[in-house]
């Protein structure tokens, strides 16, 4: 049913739940499994270049550790996980990569790191569901 | 006089709270400190004192110095003409537009209108830098050009602030001559100080740079100019040295953000009156629109001329309409020197704060560039997504060729 699955992974509890579902589905259908992590550069009212560099460095280090753990988790279930990191806007990149990579399922957590702003501006999940070119599984946790 | 320790504890407590909120919300600490200052000023009745004013002034000067030092000197040299053209237009269009608007529509006096024009002429280098990093443009010539133009834009604001209200007498001549000589010698002398006495616990190189900033600040103020003017120029002059001495810059940054800038930003928020904000809401919206429209008219066409794709041009230009630090510095200069009143200060600072948020929101909602060129982060060690590698390689090659 599913040949290529893309999971949005930012390390949040929602993303961890999405990853578990994605691994299980990939194992069940023998599908190829990819994870996409997005480094979001803060632009809201940023006052110094140092703040941006600092944020980028923190997220890069954090994601690198989390992706390694995710890779191990998938391996334990006999699934190979391909991890990719990009910079930009999570919703836009998830939709774009799902389209360009011809994925047939996108798995995302119901609430990731949109946090307080998500309440006002909409979460990544809202936007992905609205624009994705393939089926989307939104995992509640 | 209130107990100095109680006052200090309260202010630093607010600064600590602002830091936590800024991390939690992903907003700049400067912005949150201003907002906390507004709340504290209007609810706790927070007051300034002579020593608080001194610390706040040091904060503004060191912050301006660090802002100037963030420039990439090589990029400025390589794109001198283009960055001067875009940066000058980015300063002049909103300066003239906002000055005209506040003078002829809002009915402010000429000096007040100049302060209005200056406060709204700035751009946020940091916001533009964030966009450049995100789209990968920071590694390209056009990205470096736009960033250099942002520095030129703010240099225009700082120069105008320092020269519009100065007394044109002997003091100004002394200030200009001494500043020029200092800037000429600064690189060599600083290198000598670092080589001879650098990296000691007593931090002689930090004290030397503070000496330069405070001495030129003194000369600036006796000429009725602004201490941030020489500070920005000193930052630009020292930027090359900071690229080779990152720890020195980091130590100065720690000093500034922990001990000095909180006083400045909290104080900037303190004078914003909530009743005045409510009564001036129409003016605030108008000022923000004037800033955005004039910035678009001034910068937009030039970014197209210098090679930005149309959508990226709109996005970048909108983000060049942002501003915070130099906007509040200009407004506070006007208030401290009795040029503008508290209601006008409130309108300007609120418009400046709005300009730190609204253009970004508009840009991200309607003008987000397609991210085909988004580079993979250095942390990425895995293979790219299937079907994407060929395009990425092609795009990278195009960028390198260009």
UniProtKB/TrEMBL annotation, chain B:
The keyword rRNA-binding does not apply. One of its GO terms (cellular component) is membrane. PANTHER family: NAPA-TYPE SODIUM/HYDROGEN ANTIPORTER, SODIUM ION_PROTON EXCHANGER (EUROFUNG). InterPro entries: Cation/H_exchanger_TM, Na+/solute_symporter_sf. Pfam families: Na_H_Exchanger. One of its GO terms (biological process) is sodium ion transport. It is a multi-pass membrane protein. This is Kef-type K+ transport systems, membrane components. Residues 393-402 have a biased composition (Basic and acidic residues). The keyword Magnesium does not apply. Keywords: Antiport, Ion transport, Membrane, Sodium, Sodium transport, Transmembrane, Transmembrane helix, Transport. Residues 14-362 form the Cation/H+ exchanger transmembrane domain. GO terms for molecular function: antiporter activity. It comes from Thermomicrobium roseum (strain ATCC 27502 / DSM 5159 / P-2). Its main location: membrane. The chain crosses the membrane at residues 50-68, 80-101, 113-133, 145-166, 172-194, 206-223, 269-293, 313-335, 347-368. It is found in: Membrane. Residues 373-402 are annotated as: Disordered.
């Amino acid at each position: 049913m599913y040949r290529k699955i893309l999971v949005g992974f930012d390390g949040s509890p929602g993303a961890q739940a999405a990853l578990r579902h994605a691994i299980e589905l990939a194992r069940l259908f023998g599908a190829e499994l990819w994870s996409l992590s997005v480094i979001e550069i803060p632009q809201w009212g940023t006052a110094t270049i140092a703040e941006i560099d600092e944020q980028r460095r923190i997220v890069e280090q954090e994601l690198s550790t989390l992706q390694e753990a995710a890779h191990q988790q998938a391996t334990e279930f006999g699934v190979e996980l391909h991890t990719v990191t990009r910079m930009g806007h999570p919703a836009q990149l998830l939709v774009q990569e799902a389209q360009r990579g011809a994925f047939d399922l996108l798995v995302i957590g119901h609430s990731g790191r949109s946090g307080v702003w998500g309440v006002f501006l909409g979460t990544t999940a809202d936007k992905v569901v609205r624009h994705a070119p393939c089926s989307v599984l939104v995992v509640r946790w | 006089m209130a107990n100095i320790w109680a006052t200090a504890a309260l202010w630093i407590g607010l600064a600590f709270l602002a830091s936590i909120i800024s991390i939690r919300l992903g907003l700049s600490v400067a912005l949150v400190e201003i907002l906390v200052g507004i709340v504290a000023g209007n609810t706790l009745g927070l007051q300034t004192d002579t020593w608080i004013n001194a610390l706040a002034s040091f904060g503004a000067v060191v912050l301006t110095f660090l802002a100037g030092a963030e420039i990439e000197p090589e990029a400025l040299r390589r794109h001198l003409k283009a960055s001067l053209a875009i940066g000058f237009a980015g300063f002049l269009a909103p300066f003239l537009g906002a000055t005209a608007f506040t003078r002829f529509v809002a009915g402010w006096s000429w000096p007040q209108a100049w302060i209005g024009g200056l406060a709204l002429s700035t751009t946020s280098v940091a916001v533009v830098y964030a966009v450049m990093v995100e789209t990968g443009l920071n590694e390209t010539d056009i990205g470096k050009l736009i960033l250099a133009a942002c520095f030129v834009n703010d240099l225009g604001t700082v120069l105008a602030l320092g020269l519009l209200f100065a007394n044109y007498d002997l003091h100004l001549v002394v200030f200009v001559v001494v500043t020029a000589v200092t800037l000429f010698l600064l690189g060599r002398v600083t290198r000598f100080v670092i080589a001879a006495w650098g990296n000691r616990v007593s931090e002689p190189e930090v004290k030397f740079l503070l000496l330069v900033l405070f001495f030129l600040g003194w000369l600036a103020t006796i000429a009725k100019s602004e201490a941030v003017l020489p500070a920005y120029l000193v930052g630009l002059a020292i930027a090359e040295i900071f690229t080779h001495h990152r720890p020195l810059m980091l130590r100065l940054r720690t000093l500034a953000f922990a001990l000095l800038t909180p006083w400045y930003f909290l104080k900037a928020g303190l004078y914003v009156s909530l009743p005045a904000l409510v009564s001036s809401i129409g003016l605030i919206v108008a000022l923000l629109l004037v800033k955005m429209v004039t910035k678009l008219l001034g910068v937009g066409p030039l970014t197209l001329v210098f090679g930005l794709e149309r959508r990226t041009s709109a996005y970048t230009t909108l983000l060049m309409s942002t501003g915070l630090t130099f906007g509040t510095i200009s407004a506070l200069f006007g208030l401290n020197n009795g040029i503008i009143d508290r209601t006008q200060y409130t309108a300007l600072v609120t418009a400046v704060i709005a300009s730190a948020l609204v253009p970004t929101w508009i840009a991200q909602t309607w003008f987000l560039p397609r991210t085909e060129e988004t580079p993979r982060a250095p942390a990425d060690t895995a293979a790219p997504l299937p079907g994407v590698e060929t395009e990425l390689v092609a795009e990278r090659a195009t960028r390198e060729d260009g």
